[in-house]
Amino acid sequence: MWYTKDTERVSIDLETNTETGLTNVEAKKRLDQVGANEFSEHKKESIFTLFFRQINSLLIYILIGAALISAFVGEYSDAIIIVLVILLNTIIGVIQESKAEKALEELKKMTTPKAIVKRDGMTVEIPSEHVVPGDIVIIDAGRFIPADIRLIETANFQVEESSLTGESVPIDKNADWVAAEELPIADQRNMAFMSTLSSYGRAIGIVVNTGMQTEIGKIANLLGKQEKEQTPLQKKLAELGKILGIGAVIVSVIIFLIGYFQGRDVLDMFLISVSLAVAAIPEGLPAIVTIVLALGVQRMIERQAVVRKLPAVETLGAVSVICSDKTGTLTQNKMTVTKVYVNGNYLSMNSPLLKQREYSRFFEAMALCNDAVFTEEEHSGDPTEIALVAAAHVAGFEKQILDKNYERIFEIAFDSDRKMMTTVHHHGGRYFVMVKGALESILPKIRVTTLEVDKIKNVANEMSAEALRVLAIAYKEIPTFDNSMTSEDLEKELIFLGLTGMIDPPREEVKASIAQCKQAGIQTIMITGDNQKTAFAIAKDLGIANEEIESMSGSEIDRLSESELCEKVNKIRVFARVSPEHKVKIVKALKTNERIVAMTGDGVNDAPSLKQADVGVAMGKGGTDVAKGAADIVLTDDNFATIVAAVEEGRNIYQNIKKSILFLLSCNLGEIITLFIAILLGWPAPLSAIHILWINLITDTLPAISLGLDPDDPDVMDQQPRSIKESIFAHGSGMFTLLYGLLIGSLTLFAFVTGLNYYTGAPSIFSIDFSNISKDALVHAQTMAFVTLSIAQLFHSLNLRSTKKSLREVGLFTNKFLLVSIFVGIALQALLVNVPVFNDIFDLHILSLKDWLFVLTLSLVPIIFSELSKAWKRIF
Ligand code: ATP
Fold it and tell me: In this protein, which residues make up the domain named Cation-transporting P-type ATPase N-terminal (predicted)?
């Protein structure tokens, strides 16, 4: 039991060095021995289960029954085709599903947390699967604990262990404590366990167990599988699918009954009805949606946005407000101190006066109350802190040397609620408290006259107006120090040392992105912990805000009631000096006003607001694991422009899915109308069961997917955001489906009766004697209907590419997949019709050149109609 051993024993037992960590060679060896630090995968679905799941539907069973009946009565070719269609459909379904599944898995891999370990004396970040027993890991606030760890050094370290113990109150951990007896997990205070969360402070520990050997690993098998999340659209589609399914079955039953009472062949009618039901239900739709979503997500990754929760892709497209952090997201987070205010002097950083002796305490404090690493070779840590150490360096003070002389014996880490940081140092028998932080946080704690306060505030305002980030530095000497001293004791009656003003230039690309958001009806709101004046100055520069009244501070939010905030929130563009709780309030207020909110965050305390937002966006580089865990998407470059790119992608994905859906529905409707009207009018069936199944196969698969992959619409960011409640049939899409269903159905019927008219020799289509038609004429006419219906549908897919733009404007060749799908479809039809073996099996007639010209012309009507109506819309 590691927690009963002292740290030295643990490091000896695990053959590691707490200063330098394992060597890379040793780590590799151990990784090979014990395996990756992850839970063994749940059993994947086998191809066979996937296959069976595709077949496992009532309609397919009926279809199999129909094939059996056909075989039984000697219609072997029908039976074979039906089985073949079922097989092909199933195979395509399996391929689609496993592709979608694979894409989702890849995604999961991209979002696994990283761990900081010592290897070969260097501090490196590695994927947490590569952590091995004996590794020395370094943990700061907000990180997931990557393995089971015996702590060897702790500074105010607290861990939230709810994932393991159910207890959500953070537990204090202490490396120096050693247990004398066996204890339950919750009481092992010198241990930290895999997948729990460090909520405060920092620690160093030795990895004792990894993967399935960890405490959580032992119960991982019990945790069961994660539920797959469905997007709102997928849920809506499932509903729609049910309604369509019921509708299709009802229509098929009606067609069957009409046919039956008209005295038609019962088996024929049965086969036609079942095939129609199968064709009318867009059973491929869920898989197509998943594929389009998953591929869209891949494209987002290329644009630096990793989607953690699939539903977010869709919500992204409907975002109407983006609330963004300032530092690092809108700005470069490359801080440089340019001005200082010290001993009553306002100086620029290149002033030779900086090196004066009386300024030394000021620079010492800023370097000591600081966790950054700054040497010739290496700069690491918080950019604000790096800037301060760099400024001290310019003034002639080296952090490394100071750290040795002024031993740090206590610290209260920076947190964005308190907006300050305090350390206690021991130097030659004297004790110093060093403090740095936001001026608002430090002013109440310093000993100064009102006159001095006014002067300090004036300088701070001057710095802020120049968009500088202002930090105050203070200190005091205390006679002695003991661990029972509270922050109130340490942080009262401080002596003011000075102010630093640092620039953080805006990111170049952000201005254009903000302008693009405006164009796209999306509001940008800056939310920052920084000072109101500084924040506004940067917001103005970026084009987020124009007037100072568009900014509000956290304390103002506190003074407003919920309803007052709701009222004001729409006019505010900059929220400054906010704490993470304010962020939650802001999101709530915006959501009450029916806005769809994307909110960024990086800290431990940002998790609630990220969860509250419609789309939570975490920073991949600077963000904590907690923020990433709570977010829907993670930005790998922490850049605001990436959020906008993701919104654009989200809009495109939604549009493309909609295109596929409307295409499938209008085509299926065309098929239903063709048969329903013909049967109702007492005509022979224009299509046989296998014709219907075949058409369904060639149109429902390739063209529908190709539409889902349509290239991005360059105008998508010129439109207003879509309402999340909007149905896919909104904005005339329902009418569109109906209209083209009717048109395609009518064209097919027209091709059919024209064929009958011609090949029965009737004087006109109105004088065909439907009761007396030769088999040859019927097959000929059916072939014409078959070809018209399929090719009209294939061409119709082009209509879906844009609701407004003509094909020429969209670019006929921009979606090559679709062109290939159409070409393959037409080629297959030509093959079936012209090659004797096939036309025999499919009961088709070879068409003459005249027939071909006729059916091709009819098939082009939907495109011509659509192009004319788009031109009409553009002109009027
Ligand atoms: P954003 O919320 O846009 O990222 P931010 O980085 O300014 O902005 P916080 O990190 O919460 O927000 O910082 C809030 C304030 O706390 C800063 O304006 C600064 O005055 C102070 N501050 C920031 N970093 C430190 C630090 N390391 N030590 C002490 N005070 C700090």
Answer: 1-75
Is residue 75 in contact with ligand 1, taking CB distance under 6 Å?
no
Neighbour-count burial for 664-681, b at 16+ CB within 10 Å, e otherwise: bbbbbbbbbbbbbbbbee
Which residue is it, tokens 């404590």?
177
Cα of 584 to ligand 1 centre, how many Å? 18
The rounded distance, in Å, linking the Cα atoms of 794 and 811 is 17
Closest CA relative to residue 508, chosen from 459, 550, 484, 542: 542
- pLDDT tens per residue across span 496-543: 999 999 999 999 899 999 999 999 999 999 999 899 999 999 999 999
CA of 416 to the centre of ligand 1 (A): 6
- Best probe residue, ligand 1, of 326, 331, 382, 414 (max atoms within 8 Å of C-beta): 414
- Nearest CA-CA partner of 369 in 430, 437, 434, 413: 434
**Using 50, 70 and 90 to split pLDDT, how confident is the model at 223?**
very low
The backbone torsions φ and ψ at residue 633, rounded to the nearest 5 degrees and listed phi first, read -130, 155
Q: Which domains does the chain have, with CATH numbers?
A: 2-41+114-220 (2.70.150.10), 243-298+650-715+723-875 (1.20.1110.10), 305-331+507-638 (3.40.50.1000), 356-496 (3.40.1110.10)
Distances, alpha carbon 50 to alpha carbons 103, 133, 225, 295, 429, in Å? 16, 38, 17, 20, 73
Please tell me the distance from the alpha carbon of residue 862 to that of residue 250, in angstroms, as a whole number.
28
pLDDT tens digit string along 535-569? 999 999 999 999 999 999 999 999 999 999 999 99
The answer, yes or no, to whether any atom of ligand 1 lies below 6 A from the CB of 420, is: yes
pTM: 0.80
**Could you say which of 135, 148, 325, 632 is catalytic?**
325
Structure-model confidence comparison of residues 111 and 718, the more confident one: 718
Query: Chain centroid to CA 354: how far?
Result: 48
Mean pLDDT of all residues in 193-220: 86
Looking up tokens 């496993």, which residue turns up? 98
Q: Rounded to the nearest whole angstrom, what is the distance from the C-alpha of residue 864 to the centroid of ligand 1?
A: 61
For ligand 1, is residue 851 a contact (CB within 6 Å)? Answer: no
Tell me, using a 6 A CB cutoff, whether residue 415 lines ligand 1: no
**Which residue's CA is the nearest one to ligand 1's atom 16?**
419
Grouping H, G, I as helix, E, B as strand and the rest as coil, residue 814 is coil
For a ligand 1 pocket test, name from 327, 368, 386, 624 the mutation site with the most ligand atoms within 8 angstroms of its C-beta: 327
> 575 CB less than 6 Å from ligand 1?
no
> Could you confirm whether 325 is annotated as catalytic?
yes
Task: Give the number of other Cβ atoms within 10 Å of residue 409's Cβ.
Answer: 12
Indicate if the pLDDT at residue 221 is higher than 60. Answer: no
